């Protein structure tokens, strides 16, 4: 009988531990000796509607500083990004691809960016893909991070980053250049059609505040950059952020805005903070 109850307890605690998170983009951090509440918010980096709802605006008002993935207020950020956009060890796109695929990419970039692939020969292929993001939208490009920064500036508060530009850009040195090049070719061959469908689907999931759904979409994607590299893209970075978040929330009430995919899952920021003893609850 004792073994039965131990087994039952293990099953119940296991189920509660793996329980899916509620549909919410905004989460309140409290408990574990904190003197003030902080907030965690899931962003989307590219969207048609970056409007912040009433709860989010109130959370920004009740906190004293903003932390994003990067300090996007840093004036030298673009210069720093340029420094890390190139592939290491002299690798070239023209050598990663066969002649036919390189020609396909070249023609595609000329059509969509009025520039030849030869101009980007040393760039990490994923960086080229990010330059095409505005073309994947059927609306003017908007950024949630920009909206968060705008409100923060109006409140005369500071913007900080959980990681450096170097940290973030080096992620794409840890993802195979060959896979990045392969995905760029797929984008070129589809003429952005497939990417537009996928981005539209992601924006709909985001709009429904389904952070678990966003993580699942990444996991199920046939884009190998996202589906095969979640440790590099998400989990490792989440773990690196936790000590910074904890140190920061002990000091002053803070609003954290990170990509919504970072929030969900067993190795997402919400459950990692809960494992450290903090209460992290959805704000409805």
Could you please describe the fold and organization of this structure?
This protein has 284 residues and is α/β, with parallel strands linked by helices. 51% of the residues lie in helices and 10% in strands. The chain has 14 helices and six strands. It has helices spanning 2-17, 54-61, 77-83, 93-96, 99-113, 125-131, 144-154, 165-170, 177-190, 193-207, 211-220, 224-227, 230-251, 269-275, and strands at residues 26-30, 38-43, 65-68, 158-161, 255-259, 279-282. A hairpin with a 7-residue loop joins strand 1 and strand 2. The termini are far apart. 32% of the residues are buried. It holds the Pfam family TraB_PrgY_gumN. This is TraB family protein.
What key attributes describe this structure?
14 helices, 284 residues, 6-stranded mixed β-sheet, 51% helix, alpha/beta
Helix content: 40-55%
Helix segment count? 14
Low-pLDDT stretches:
1-17
SS-based structural class? alpha/beta
The pLDDT mean sits at: 91
InterPro entries: TraB/PrgY/GumN_fam, YbaP-like
Pfam family, one: TraB_PrgY_gumN
Organism: Flavobacterium aquaticum
Protein name: TraB family protein
Task: Write a brief caption for the model.
By secondary structure, the protein is α/β, with parallel strands linked by helices. Helices cover 51% and strands 10% of the residues. It has helices spanning 2-17, 54-61, 77-83, 93-96, 99-113, 125-131, 144-154, 165-170, 177-190, 193-207, 211-220, 224-227, 230-251, 269-275; strands at 26-30, 38-43, 65-68, 158-161, 255-259, 279-282.
């Amino acid at each position: 009988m004792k073994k039965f109850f131990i087994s039952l307890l293990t099953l119940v605690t296991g189920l509660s531990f793996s329980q899916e998170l509620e549909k919410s983009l905004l989460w309140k951090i409290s408990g574990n000796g904190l003197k003030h509440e902080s907030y965690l918010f899931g962003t989307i980096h590219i969207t048609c509607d970056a409007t912040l709802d009433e709860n989010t605006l109130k959370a920004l008002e009740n906190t004293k500083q903003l932390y994003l993935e990067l300090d996007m207020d840093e004036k030298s950020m673009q210069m720093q990004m340029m420094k890390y956009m190139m592939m290491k060890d002299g690798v070239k796109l023209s050598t990663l691809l066969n002649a036919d695929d390189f020609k396909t990419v070249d023609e595609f970039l000329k059509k969509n960016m009025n520039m030849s692939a030869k101009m980007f020969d040393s760039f990490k292929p994923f960086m080229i893909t990010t330059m095409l993001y505005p073309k994947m939208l059927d609306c003017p490009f908007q950024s949630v991070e920009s909206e968060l920064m705008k409100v923060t500036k109006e409140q005369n508060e500071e913007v900080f980053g959980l990681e450096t530009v170097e940290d973030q850009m080096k992620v794409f040195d840890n993802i195979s250049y060959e896979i990045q090049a392969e995905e760029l070719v797929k984008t070129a061959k589809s003429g952005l059609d497939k990417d537009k469908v996928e981005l539209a689907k992601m924006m709909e999931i985001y709009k429904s505040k389904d952070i678990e759904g966003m993580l699942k979409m990444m996991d199920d994607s046939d884009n190998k950059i996202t589906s095969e590299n979640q440790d590099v893209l998400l989990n490792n970075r989440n773990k690196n952020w936790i000590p910074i978040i904890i140190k920061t929330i002990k000091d002053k009430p803070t609003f954290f805005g990170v990509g919504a995919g970072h929030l969900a899952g067993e190795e997402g920021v919400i459950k990692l903070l809960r494992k450290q003893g903090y209460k992290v609850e959805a704000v409805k």
